Amino acid sequence: MYGVSNPAVGVDITLWYILVFSIVLLTLITATMIWFVIRYRRDKHPDPVDIRGNWILETVWMLVPTLIALSMFVIGWQSYLGLREVPDDAIEIEVYAQMYSWIFVYPNDKETENELVVPMGSAVKLNITSEDVLHSFYLPAFRIKVDAVKGLDTYAWFQADKLGVFDIHCTEFCGIGHYDMNAVLTIVPQDDYLEWLETDEDDE
């Protein structure tokens, strides 16, 4: 969508589209109201004019908001599809939520707790579920928020397009330790990832 492969970009475009459109509309409507208050105040127009039956005005103020709402729906739907259509070459990592930590299982069955490590430049699919109560996987830097439900398999994906360390949170109250159910996403160069993947945790 939009000629980009990163779904986070689509989410940002949608947000800015709606925000800018809302600001423009607010400005125009407010300016029009102020102009009407001044131009048609009581001392200049003591007898109000009834505009009912003006089919041109009625058509415009029904058609314009409808088109605006539809345009927001279309761009939002495209953004949603971008979040759900996973590239065929995506790396798949299993994500298990439990009170009060995140467990990540990699294609070679390596496991980590509260640290997700992925290679730079790769699409990453996260298969998410819960081992106990309701949790919610939130990766704000990549615009991902997905509930983790016991007995239900769901997923999210992102494009690892920048090196660094990014926060992961649980955003569903899951018990007294909810406040501390945090993890990190670490994006490293491809060679470093392959080396790390083959390293035993005891050797790290």
What can you tell me about this protein's structure?
The chain is α+β, with helices and mostly antiparallel strands. It has two domains: 7-84, Helix Hairpins (Orthogonal Bundle), CATH 1.10.287; 91-203, Cupredoxins -  blue copper proteins (Immunoglobulin-like, Sandwich). 35% of the residues lie in helices and 29% in strands. The protein is built from three helices and ten strands; from the N terminus they run ααββββββββββα. The chain has helices at 7-39, 55-84, 190-197; strands spanning 91-98, 101-105, 111-113, 115-119, 123-130, 135-139, 144-148, 154-159, 164-170, 182-188. The strands form two sheets. Strands 3-2-1-5-8 form a five-stranded mixed beta sheet, with no helix packed on it. Helix 1 packs antiparallel against helix 2. The longest helix has 33 residues, at 7-39. The protein is elongated. The two termini are 40 Å apart. The model has no long low-confidence stretch (mean pLDDT 90).
